[in-house]
Amino acid sequence: MRMAVISDIHANPEAFKQVLIDIGKSNIDNTICLGDNIGYGPEPEQIVAMINDHNIPTVMGNHELAVIDRKYLSLFNPLARKSLLKTIELLSEESINFISGLEPFLVRYECRFVHGFPPDSASIYLFQVSEDELLLTFKQMKERICFLGHTHRLEIIDFNGQIVTRAPLTKSITSLDRNRQYIINIGSVGQPRDGNNCAKYVVWDTLNDNIEVKFIPYDIVSVIDKIIAAGLPIEHAVRLL
């Protein structure tokens, strides 16, 4: 099986469209999304519709969480909070109902899929987790692989039963070891923060047991114009460059 894992689209349809085109060319059997489909970007309603049109299972991200439970808005910085309040205005009741039904995690194909950190957090960032906490998490994790997003940065962490090792993921194919466990941060489709402005997603090939990181160019200027026209913080437009 070849599975595409996507995350952090952030209401950026130009990036998402190009990723979907690439998925269509890549012999993909299944696609799973790790949340934060909305927020920051100009077209949250369109992204929710695209997710539904393509029947892509998705988990709850921290931006979705803030839409359905406003107390979580206080956890965001002022600019992100402003963006989320505008996002709520742009979402239909149907889309908000869809978001309300999202689960905090999925377990499929003997893997865990979560937005922030296992087992089920939408809000914990991977960079906040200590080595001791990682070690404990691996020991408690029943699945061999956990895919997550949230930081918008590519990273792979492996556990050989004794030692935890962290490394960046690059635009390449990374072979996995069937005797190790992994936490894999797959980066962001709609707002990467790793020094490269291409949309990012990964393909997990279960037969060959490897991870391929895909870098997909898209029309960034068009998205910037839409962010400004929508009255969203200009900082979220500049960040795409």
Description:
The protein has about 240 residues and is an alpha/beta fold. It has a 6-stranded mixed β-sheet, with helices on one face. It has a 5-stranded mixed β-sheet with strand order 2-1-10-11-8. The model has no long low-confidence stretch (mean pLDDT about 95).
Query: What distance separates the N and C termini?
Result: 34 Å
Count of all domains: 1
Helix content: 25-40%
**Secondary-structure element sequence?**
EHEHHHHEEHEEEEEEEHH
| Discrete helix count | 8
CATH topology title = Purple Acid Phosphatase, chain A, domain 2
CATH superfamily: Metallo-dependent phosphatases
Rg to the nearest angstrom? 17 Å
CATH architecture: 4-Layer Sandwich
Give me the side-by-side strand order of the main sheet.
Answer: 3-4-5-9-6-7
Shape: globular
Query: Structural class of the helices, strands and pairings?
Result: alpha/beta
What oligomeric state is this?
single chain
Secondary structure tally: strands? 11
CATH class: Alpha Beta
Which key phrases capture this entry?
6-stranded mixed sheet, 241 residues, alpha/beta, 5-stranded mixed sheet
Give a short summary of the structure:
With 241 residues, this protein is α/β, with parallel strands linked by helices.
